[in-house]
Amino acid sequence: MENNPFSTIAIMGTQEISNLIKEQFGEEAVLRVEESGLQSAIYIDALRLEEICYYLRDQEVLYFDFLNNISAVDLNEHGFLVTYHLTSIPYRHTVVLKIEVENDRDLNNLPEIPSVSAVWKTANWHEREAFDLMGIFFVNHPDLRRILLPDDWEGHPLRKDYQDPESYHGIAIK
Fold first, then answer.
1. For residue 99, what are the contacts with CB-CB under 8 A and spacing of at least 6?
2. Where is 21: in which H helix or E strand?
3. Which of 29, 34, 44, 171 is deepest in the core (most CB within 10 A)?
4. What's the CA gap between 115 and 123, in Å, rounded?
5. What are phi and psi of 117, to 5 degrees?
6. Residue whose C-alpha is closest to residue 41's, from 119, 94, 112
7. What is the DSSP secondary-structure string of 148-160?
């Protein structure tokens, strides 16, 4: 590890990363920092998501080169929560970003947030899964279509208001 140029960089915590985001994008870009729970998280403004992700990836002191996961949670009347787990492999630091999305729960009006598939290629499949199962629409995704269910499946099975169909193409599924 002596020749590793990343070995001299200290591992950053959530608060330090949050401060860098605020310095770059303004105080309003970070809605709050959650220090409780299993992992600290930075709640960010959904409209700034893509540019913040480019910043987290491209800044030499951060270098979040790996998007581990994107997950979505249905919060009922409070909308949806989308969570991004990022890792800088050479620096060995991680960060969790969270986006809160309000929605009227109409399936013709899916909750929308910007895609980060241009930032990390792995987002392509993670976003397709969140779209397929939770009904989150990722704006500017290059190929947002179902990934686990058939293209003509109706609804998004992980939503709390999802109703299981009795059959699919005449085949009983209950």
1. 43, 44, 46, 49, 81, 82, 83, 84, 113
2. helix 14-25
3. 44
4. 8
5. -70, -20
6. 94
7. SS-TT--S-TTST
Please name the helix (run of DSSP H) or strand (run of DSSP E) that holds residue 31, with its range, or none. strand 30-34
Dist CA 117 CA 12 (whole Å): 25
For 95, other C-beta atoms within 10 Å of its C-beta total 23
pTM of the model: 0.92
Name, in order, each residue with C-beta under 8 angstroms of 49's C-beta and a sequence gap of 6 or more. Answer: 97, 99, 113, 114, 116
pLDDT tens for each residue of 24-63: 999 999 999 999 888 999 999 999 999 999 999 999 999 9
Cβ atoms 87, 94 nearer than 8 A: yes
- In percent, the amount of the chain with pLDDT more than 90 equals 85
Q: What's residue 153's pLDDT?
A: 95
SS (H, E, C) 64-114: CCEEEEEEEEECHHHCEEEEEEEEECCCCEEEEEEEEECCCCCCCCCCEEE
